[in-house]
C-alpha cells in the first residue's frame, strides 16, 4: 500500500474528526453516532467506487481505505490502553468510592448477568453451543456510556448520577473484556460445554494477576518520574509508555488480563502521582492524556465502523431474527439490573436513590460501539474458532451495535425529552426569572458606568437605555408573577451556590500553588459532598457534610489504630500533616466566602438567607479553629511553619507574575526573564516540600503545657515525657470499659471525653485526667469512658503515676478535687498527706 495514500487517509480522518463534533451538536445526536456514520459512509463509498465502472480515478484511494491494516490487535493494543488509562486519571476516586456499590453492580454484576441472559436466550433459539453464545453475550455487554453522560451533563443531571455512569464505563469494559478473554480461550480449545465451570477457575488470576502487574509497574513509573521533576515532558512521556507496557506485560508474560493491568496502573498513578509531581506537571499530564484519549476514542469508532460492511457481507433474514433476540435479551438483562436490583440496594441503604426517569435514560443510553466491534473482529480473525461461530459472532455483534447506534442513539434525546429530564423544575424556573432580573439590574448599573466613562453620545445612550429598561421591566414583572420560593428552598439553593463558590476558590488556590494536587482532590471531594448533601438534605445535610470534612476520616482512624497498637508512626504523621494543611486552607477559603454571600447570594435570595449562610459559615469556622487549636497544642510550632510556607509560596507566585508583566511590557528581555524564572523555579521546588512532622518528639512540649506538671523541674519533665505514651481516640471510641480496674491514667492533651457511672455522666476536657480514682481505690466502679471529640491522650502506667503523685502537690490536688466532685474517698491521698506532715 502506498504510504502517500495512507498518510492522506489518516490526515483526512483527523479532519473529519474535527468536523464531526460540531456536526453532532448541530444535529443533536451523540458524537459516537456521527463517528460511526462517517465510518460506514467511507467504507460503503470506497466499496462502491472500487466496483463501479463510472471512474477509475478513485480506485487507489478506495483500495487503500478497504485494505487498511485494521486488525483486532490494533484496537486492543493501541487504542484501548489509551482510553482506559485516561479515564482512570480523570476519576475522582474518593467520590467513586462513595458509590462503589452501584458502580460495581452496573459494571461487574450487570456484565455477568447480561452475558448469561443473552447467551442462554441465543442458545435456546439458535441451537449454537452454549459457550459460543456466552462469548457473544460477553462481547455485547460492553457499553459506551459517553452518549448518555454527555447528554446528562448538558441537561444538568445530578453529578452523582453522571459519576456512576462514568465509573460503570471503566469497570464495565474491564470486566467484559476479562470475561471475553476467558471464554475466547475456552472456545479456541474446543472443550465441551460441561467443562465450563472448570475454566471459570482461571478467572481470579486474570483479575488479580493483572491488577498486581499494573500496580507494581505504576509504582515504579511514579517513583522514576519523581527523580526528574524539572523535566515535565519526560514525565509525560513516561506516563504514555506505562499503560502499553503494563498491557503487554500482563498479557504476554503473565497470562493475566491486560485491561485490568491498565486500569490498576491508572488508578495507582491517580493516587500516587499528585503527591510526587508538581501541580503544573500533573495538570499538564492529564490534559495531554485527555487529548490523546479524544483522538483514540474517535479513531477507534471510525476505524471500527469501516469494518461494518465487511462483517455484514453475507447477512440473511435469519440473522435479523437472531439480532432481534440479542437486542431483547440485552435490554431485558439491563432493565432487570436497573429496575429490580438497584432499587433493592437503595432500600438496603447500599446505593443512592436513582429516580426512574434517569434509570430509563441509562437503559436506553447503553450504546455499544468500538470495543464491541473490536472484540467481534478478534473472534472472526481467529482460525482456531469454528467457522460457524466466527460468522455468528461477527454478524450478530455488528447488527446489535448498529441497532444501538442507529435506533437508540438517534432517539436518545427524544427519550430524555419525553421523560422530562430536559425541563427545569418549577423551583428552578422561578429562580431563573429572579436571577435574570437581578443580573439585568447589575448589567444596567455597569453599562451606565461604562457609558459615562467613555463620554458616549447622550442620544444613543438614552435610546439604548430605553430598550434595555423595557427588557428589565419585563423581567422584574415576570419574577414578581412567578410562584413564591419558600425560604427552605432558597436556603438550599444558597447553600449549593455557596459550596460551588467554595469549589472554585479551592481550584484557584491550587493554581496559586497554595495546596498540592493530592490534597486538592481530597478537599474537592469534601466540597462535592457538601454540594450533594445540600441538594438532598438542605441545611441539615450541608451541616453534616461540613462536620465530616473537619472530622477524622477512615484512613486517619486506621493510622491511629496502627500507632496505638503497633507504634507505627509514619502513616499517622503524614495524615496529621495533611490535616494541618487542609484545615489551614479551609479557614482561608471560608473568609473569602463571606464576601461572596454579600456580593451575590444576598441580591438573589435576600437578607434572611444571607444571614443564615453567614451563621453556618461562622459555625464551620469555629469547628475548624477548634480542630486547629487541638493540633497546635499537640504539635507546637508546626502550624506556624505551614503558615510561613504558605506566605513564601504566595510571594514566589506574585514574583513570577511580576517578571511576566515586565516581559510583556518590554522592560526586560527574554534572556533575563528566562534566567529569573529558572532561579525562581528552583526556589519554588524547595518550597513544594512540606516540613516534616515527627509526632514522636512532641510529648515533652505537651507535658510542659499541662498545669499539673508546672511545678516539676526540667529533668523530671523529660523523664515523664519518655514514660508518657500517646494515644489517639476518634469521636465515639471506647477508651475504658465497665467492670475493669484501670491500670493506666490518661491525661487529656486535646479533645474531650465523657465518663458514665451509675447513670451519671461527667465530661472532661483538655488538661484533665481520668482513670486515677478507680486505680487508687482498686475498685471497679462500672465506669465507661468514651471520646466525644477527636482526642489526644497521654497515658501513664500505675507505677509511674504513683511516683508522680508522690512528687507533685499539683497532681495530688487535681486528684483530690476530682474525687470530691464525684463523692469518692481516696485513702491513698490521706496517706500521702500524713507522710508529708511527718517529713515536714
Automatic annotation (TrEMBL):
Gene3D superfamilies given in the database record: 6.10.140.1330, Jelly Rolls
Keywords from the UniProt entry: Cell membrane, Ion transport, Membrane, Sodium, Sodium transport, Transmembrane, Transmembrane helix, Transport
UniProt keyword Cell cycle present: no
PROSITE patterns linked: CNMP_BINDING_3
Coiled-coil stretches noted in the UniProt entry, renumbered to this chain: none
Keyword Transmembrane helix: yes
Topology within the bilayer: Multi-pass membrane protein
Domain Cyclic nucleotide-binding: 708-822
Subcellular location, record wording: Cell membrane
Regions that span the bilayer: 6-24, 31-50, 70-89, 101-122, 128-152, 173-191, 203-223, 244-269, 289-308, 320-341, 361-380, 392-416
SUPFAM superfamilies, alphabetized: cAMP-binding domain-like (SSF51206)
Protein name: Cation:proton antiporter
Originating species: Litorisediminicola beolgyonensis
Amino acid at each position: 500500500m502506498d504510504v502517500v495514500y495512507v498518510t492522506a487517509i489518516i490526515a483526512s480522518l483527523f479532519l473529519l474528526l474535527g468536523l464531526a463534533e460540531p456536526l453532532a451538536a448541530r444535529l443533536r445526536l451523540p458524537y459516537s453516532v456521527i463517528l460511526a456514520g462517517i465510518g460506514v459512509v467511507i467504507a460503503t463509498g470506497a466499496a462502491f467506487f472500487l466496483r463501479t465502472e463510472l471512474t477509475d480515478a478513485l480506485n487507489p484511494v478506495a483500495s487503500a481505505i478497504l485494505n487498511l491494516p485494521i486488525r483486532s490487535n490494533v484496537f486492543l493494543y493501541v487504542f484501548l490502553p489509551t482510553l482506559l488509562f485516561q479515564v482512570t486519571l480523570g476519576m475522582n476516586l474518593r467520590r467513586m468510592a462513595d458509590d462503589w456499590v452501584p458502580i460495581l453492580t452496573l459494571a461487574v454484576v450487570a456484565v455477568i448477568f447480561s452475558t448469561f441472559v443473552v447467551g442462554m436466550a441465543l442458545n435456546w433459539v439458535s441451537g449454537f453451543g452454549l459457550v459460543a453464545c456466552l462469548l457473544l453475550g460477553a462481547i455485547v455487554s460492553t457499553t459506551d456510556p459517553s452518549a448518555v453522560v454527555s447528554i446528562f451533563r448538558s441537561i444538568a443531571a445530578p453529578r452523582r448520577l453522571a459519576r456512576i455512569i462514568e465509573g460503570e464505563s471503566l469497570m464495565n469494559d474491564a470486566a467484559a473484556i476479562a470475561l471475553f478473554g476467558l471464554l475466547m480461550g475456552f472456545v479456541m480449545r474446543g472443550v465441551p460445554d460441561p467443562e465450563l465451570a472448570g475454566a471459570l477457575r482461571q478467572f481470579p488470576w486474570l483479575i488479580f494477576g493483572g491488577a498486581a502487574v499494573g500496580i507494581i509497574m505504576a509504582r515504579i513509573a511514579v517513583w522514576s518520574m519523581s527523580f526528574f521533576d524539572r523535566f515535565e515532558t519526560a514525565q509525560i512521556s513516561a506516563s504514555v509508555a506505562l499503560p502499553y507496557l503494563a498491557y503487554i506485560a500482563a498479557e504476554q508474560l503473565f497470562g493475566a488480563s491486560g485491561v485490568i493491568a491498565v486500569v490498576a496502573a491508572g488508578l495507582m498513578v491517580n493516587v500516587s502521582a499528585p503527591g510526587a509531581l508538581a501541580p503544573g506537571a500533573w495538570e499538564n499530564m492529564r490534559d495531554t492524556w485527555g487529548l490523546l484519549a479524544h483522538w483514540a476514542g474517535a479513531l477507534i469508532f471510525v476505524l471500527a465502523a469501516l469494518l461494518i460492511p465487511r462483517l455484514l457481507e453475507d447477512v440473511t433474514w435469519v440473522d435479523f431474527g437472531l439480532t432481534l433476540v440479542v437486542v431483547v435479551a440485552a435490554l431485558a438483562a439491563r432493565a432487570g439490573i436497573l429496575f429490580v436490583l438497584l432499587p433493592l440496594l437503595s432500600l438496603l441503604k447500599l446505593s443512592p436513590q436513582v429516580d426512574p426517569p434517569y434509570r430509563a435514560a441509562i437503559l436506553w443510553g447503553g450504546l455499544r460501539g468500538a470495543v464491541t466491534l473490536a472484540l467481534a473482529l478478534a473472534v472472526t480473525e481467529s482460525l482456531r474458532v469454528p467457522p460457524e461461530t466466527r460468522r455468528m459472532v461477527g454478524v450478530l455483534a455488528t447488527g446489535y451495535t448498529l441497532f444501538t447506534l442507529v435506533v437508540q442513539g438517534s432517539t436518545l434525546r427524544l427519550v430524555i425529552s419525553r421523560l422530562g429530564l430536559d425541563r427545569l423544575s418549577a423551583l428552578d424556573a422561578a429562580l431563573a426569572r429572579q436571577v435574570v432580573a437581578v443580573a439585568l439590574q447589575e448589567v444596567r448599573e455597569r453599562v451606565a458606568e461604562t457609558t459615562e466613562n467613555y463620554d458616549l453620545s447622550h442620544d444613543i445612550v438614552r435610546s439604548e437605555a430605553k430598550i434595555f429598561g423595557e427588557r428589565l421591566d419585563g423581567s422584574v414583572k415576570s419574577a414578581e408573577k412567578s410562584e413564591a420560593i419558600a425560604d427552605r428552598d432558597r436556603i438550599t439553593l444558597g447553600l449549593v451556590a455557596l459550596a460551588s463558590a467554595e469549589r472554585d476558590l479551592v481550584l484557584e488556590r491550587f493554581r496559586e500553588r497554595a495546596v498540592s494536587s493530592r490534597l486538592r482532590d481530597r478537599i474537592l471531594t469534601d466540597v462535592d459532598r457538601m454540594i450533594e448533601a445540600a441538594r438532598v438534605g438542605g441545611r441539615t445535610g450541608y451541616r453534616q457534610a461540613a462536620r465530616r470534612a473537619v472530622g477524622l476520616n477512615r484512613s486517619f482512624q486506621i493510622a491511629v489504630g496502627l500507632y496505638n497498637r503497633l507504634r507505627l508512626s509514619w502513616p499517622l504523621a503524614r495524615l496529621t500533616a495533611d490535616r494541618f494543611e487542609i484545615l489551614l486552607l479551609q479557614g482561608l477559603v471560608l473568609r473569602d466566602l463571606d464576601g461572596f454571600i454579600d456580593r451575590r447570594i444576598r441580591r438573589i435570595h435576600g437578607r434572611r438567607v444571607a444571614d443564615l449562610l453567614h451563621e453556618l459559615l461562622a459555625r464551620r469556622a469555629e469547628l475548624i479553629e477548634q480542630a486547629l487549636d487541638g493540633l497546635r497544642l499537640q504539635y507546637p510550632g508546626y502550624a506556624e511553619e505551614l503558615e510561613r510556607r504558605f506566605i513564601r509560596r504566595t510571594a514566589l507566585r506574585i514574583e513570577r507574575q511580576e517578571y511576566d508583566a515586565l516581559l510583556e511590557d518590554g522592560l526586560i528581555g527574554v534572556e533575563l526573564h528566562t534566567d529569573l524564572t529558572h532561579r525562581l523555579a528552583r526556589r519554588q521546588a524547595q518550597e513544594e516540600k512540606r516540613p516534616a512532622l515527627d509526632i514522636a518528639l512532641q510529648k515533652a512540649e505537651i507535658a510542659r503545657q499541662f498545669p499539673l506538671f508546672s511545678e516539676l523541674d526540667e529533668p523530671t519533665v523529660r523523664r515523664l515525657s519518655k514514660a508518657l505514651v500517646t494515644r489517639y481516640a476518634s469521636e465515639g471510641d471506647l477508651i475504658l470499659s465497665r467492670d475493669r480496674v484501670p491500670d493506666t491514667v490518661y491525661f487529656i492533651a486535646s479533645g474531650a471525653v465523657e465518663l458514665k457511672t451509675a447513670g451519671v455522666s461527667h465530661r472532661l476536657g483538655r488538661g484533665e485526667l481520668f482513670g486515677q480514682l478507680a486505680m487508687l481505690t482498686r475498685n471497679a466502679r462500672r465506669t465507661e469512658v468514651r471520646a466525644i471529640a477527636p482526642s489526644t491522650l497521654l497515658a501513664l502506667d500505675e507505677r509511674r503515676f504513683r511516683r508522680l503523685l508522690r512528687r507533685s502537690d499539683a497532681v495530688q490536688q487535681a486528684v483530690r478535687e476530682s474525687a470530691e466532685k464525684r463523692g469518692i474517698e481516696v485513702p491513698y491521698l490521706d496517706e500521702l498527706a500524713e507522710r508529708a506532715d511527718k517529713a515536714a
